[in-house]
Design goal:
18 helices, single chain, globular, Cytochrome C Oxidase, Chain A, mainly alpha
């Protein structure tokens, strides 16, 4: 492992764009929460059908671009050599960022043309596809063979390949065979999205395992049998557990049965978390002063909570109630923020450490922001689950009650998740805004120094 500095690390730009997307995406989410409580708010300028994809896409792109940047950074540390092609890396970054920018602009303008989560016009998917292919090439040329590699390299390899496959698959609706049949359309849509989440999880978890080895100074876990066993279990889930999303779709029964069995294998992950909990508590006391390690502790708790909820939702008898309710939203929020975001922040804080070290009295912002975010998220999560339970009971047992009356009864929980959404966002801004500010201050200083050196060189040449 050869640490890099930010001057020689071109992947830092991926992380910075990712942080900007996270912070702005959470602001879109706040507007959406207010619209839940105040119907019709900003309806003529930014109605809910625009705010929702702005929020969802921003946060999804935060995960994707940051996971890619973190993976390519650690690939360099792992191999001890620079990225194969900096030029390709810059093209990849530019294509991805420009595509995301145009996508968000089209949402603001009310221009749509896709499917859920990828609601933008399909033509804007092409730059992202090209960007990903460039990334794949750069990654493979940098890491070389995958033989005799630690488990995190296998996870990165799997994540990159399967994301490409599932991303292409998510546009199968452009083919009439899928588009003209509602069952086929829904099945392939949820299949591709479910597996795509597993793909970027592979990138994130691979980075997490790499950082664990880096912190401990050993490679015990990354070459262990249990490490590879968990990897293959995750790969198995990536390919087959998406079926619990379509229990209510009239597709083939064997798809649902297989997906149910696969989902239940997640119990092994929960068993491992519980078994190692006491050991992790001891380690937390030893390392909790480290900024990045705090996010590991938070993610550890959220992995446990989110898996419990996911397993419950995977039981068909329960899924009948939870499908289409705020319980699904709670599961998504727990996984997106509690697991993915906190794990990514642990890695980001490691990779941007040269920047963070120069922030004066940074703990004044980090510690309050960390606790505000976590306390807010747990209240936010519980309020959504309670609202989901009440809505589930209504749609199964009391459909005669008007929808508007049911939604009015949930208003206190909407107010609660709106308030905690604001405080959660405030906590994230407290932690990340100083990092952005310091990064850009350093970039400006570097450019000024380069300009001064260039002018001196020109003056000396002119004098001579």
């Amino acid at each position: 492992m050869v640490p890099l500095n930010n001057k020689s690390n071109p992947t830092a730009a991926f992380l910075i764009v990712g942080i900007i997307l996270l912070l702005t995406g959470m602001c879109w989410g706040i507007i959406g929460a207010f619209q839940y409580v105040i119907p019709g708010l900003f309806k003529s300028q930014l109605s809910f059908e625009r705010i929702r994809p702005l929020h969802v896409s921003s946060v999804v792109f935060w995960i994707i671009i940051t996971a890619v940047g973190c993976t390519l950074y650690y690939a360099q540390e792992h191999t001890g050599k620079k990225i194969y092609s900096v030029k390709l890396l810059k093209w990849q970054w530019a294509l991805f960022v420009l595509s995301v920018l145009f996508i968000l602009i089209t949402y603001i303008l009310g221009i749509f043309g896709g499917r859920e989560y990828w609601e933008f016009h399909p033509i804007l998917a092409l730059p992202i596809l090209i960007s990903w292919i460039l990334c794949l090439f750069n990654f493979f040329k940098t890491t070389g063979t995958i033989k005799k590699q630690p488990v995190y390299v296998w996870m990165w390899f799997t994540g990159f390949v399967f994301f490409l496959i599932t991303y292409i698959e998510s546009y199968a609706w452009l083919i009439p065979y899928f588009r003209n049949n509602v069952v086929n359309d829904l099945t392939i849509q949820w299949k591709s999205y479910g597996s795509m989440v597993g793909s970027w999880n592979m990138l994130i978890y691979g980075c997490g395992i790499y950082l664990m080895d880096k912190m401990s100074g050993t490679t015990t876990y990354s070459f262990s049998k249990i490490g590879f066993a968990i990897y293959f279990l995750g790969l198995f889930n990536l390919m087959f557990n998406w079926g619990h999303h379509i229990y209510t779709v009239p597709t083939h029964g064997y798809i649902k049965h297989v997906s149910y069995l696969v989902s239940m294998t997640e119990l092994l992950l929960i068993g491992r978390i519980i078994f190692l909990w006491r050991r992790s508590v001891k380690e937390n006391k030893k390392h909790f002063h480290q900024s990045g390690f705090r996010f590991y502790v938070a993610a550890d708790v959220w992995i446990f909570l989110t898996l419990l909820l996911a397993i419950a939702m995977s039981v068909p008898a329960i899924n009948v109630y939870t499908h289409g309710t705020h319980i699904t939203v709670a599961h998504t929020m727990g996984a997106t923020i509690g697991i993915n975001t906190f794990l990514l922040l642990a890695v980001v804080f490691d990779q941007l450490n040269p920047v963070i070290r120069k922030i004066k009295n940074y703990n004044r912002y980090l510690l309050p922001g960390f606790w505000i975010s976590n306390v807010s998220l747990i209240i936010f999560w519980v309020s959504l689950i309670v609202a989901g339970i009440l809505k589930a009971w209504w749609q199964v047992h009391h459909p005669e009650i008007p929808f508007s009356s049911m939604m009015q009864s949930l208003r206190p929980y909407f107010i609660l998740f709106m308030i905690t959404g604001v405080t959660l966002t405030a906590g994230m801004w407290m932690m990340l805004l100083p990092v952005l500010k310091q990064y850009f201050v350093q970039r400006i200083r570097v450019k000024k120094r380069m300009g001064i050196l260039y002018n001196r060189r020109r003056a000396s040449l002119h004098t001579s």
